[in-house]
Amino acid sequence: MSSTVRTAIVTGAARGIGAAVAQRLAADGMQVAVLDLDAAACADTVSAIESAGGKALAVGANVADEASVAAAVEKVAEELGDPTVLINNAGITRDNLLFKMTVEDWDAVMSVHLRGAFLMARATQKYMVDNKFGRIVNLSSTSAQGNRGQVNYSAAKAGMQGFTKTLAVELGKFGVTANAIAPGFIATEMTAATAERVGASFEDYKAAAASQIPVARVGEPDDIAHTASFLASEGAGFVSGQVIYVAGGPKD
């Protein structure tokens, strides 16, 4: 196993799954760039990492903007070192039924998820290739299989899977792996907002979801962080192009 200190970028890391992943990678010994739309919003995640003895950098960037991504990745490389681990977690929802969905809501979701993952992967891959080591982990979702009211989100998350498999093919010979994690129901601010939107209390919403999950509970951000930790590790070099469902049970 290598003793090299790796630098990781985690997008959408101010809260929820991204924050949990950032903290776990720091605990694994990586330096972590905590990236979100507003650098100030990353303060809690950075503080948690530093309080535990890790090293972190708050970075503000819009992952859907080419210039913003280029500047952010350059900043990380200069202040932490070559970013050779990338977790594409940034995401938004703009849920609605097809006949009510606006073009703006379709485009917004596609831009953050797919354009954002593309821009981040393109900007960091040169560091990975130069170092002959890279780990790209993209966040998909069980919604990629289809979910009422999420035609934009489902399409984006399905696209992330094809994107991941192609990265694995293109970059594998350079020591770079690419994998996707497809979470099921994870208790986050995003799922709490969904519960509010449908007029349910979050506790009732979680209980209803848990009743349909074989392990009889909903997921927590740490469940995803544990999986990301393995996929980003030195030992995961022969795992690439995979979509790993972290959903508490088998998916159809």
Summarize this structure as a short list of keywords or feature phrases.
7 strands; seven-stranded parallel sheet; 252 residues; alpha/beta; 16% strand
Please characterize this protein's 3D structure.
With 252 residues, this protein is α/β, with parallel strands linked by helices. The chain contains 8 helices and 7 strands. A 7-stranded parallel beta sheet has the order 3-2-1-4-5-6-7, with helices on both faces. It starts with 6 loop residues before the first strand and ends in a 6-residue tail after the last strand. The mean pLDDT is 96.
What percentage of the residues does DSSP assign to strands (E)? 15-25%
Q: Given the structure, what is the number of helices?
A: 8
Strand order of the largest sheet: 3-2-1-4-5-6-7
The outline comes out as: globular
Characterize the largest beta sheet: strand count, sense, and whether it forms a barrel: 7 strands, parallel
Structural class: alpha/beta
Rounded average pLDDT:
96
Series of H and E elements: EHEHEHEHEHEHHHE
**Spatial extent as radius of gyration:** 17 Å
N- to C-terminal distance:
36 Å
Number of strands: 7
Helix content: 40-55%
Show unreliable segments: none
Task: List strands and helices in order, with pairings.
Blueprint: E1 7-11, H1 16-27, E2 31-36, H2 43-51, E3 56-60, H3 66-79, E4 83-88, H4 103-131, E5 134-139, H5 151-171, E6 176-183, H6 189-197, H7 202-210, H8 221-231, E7 243-246
Parallel strand pairs: 1-2, 1-4, 2-3, 4-5, 5-6, 6-7
Helix pairs in contact: 1-2, 1-8, 3-4, 4-5
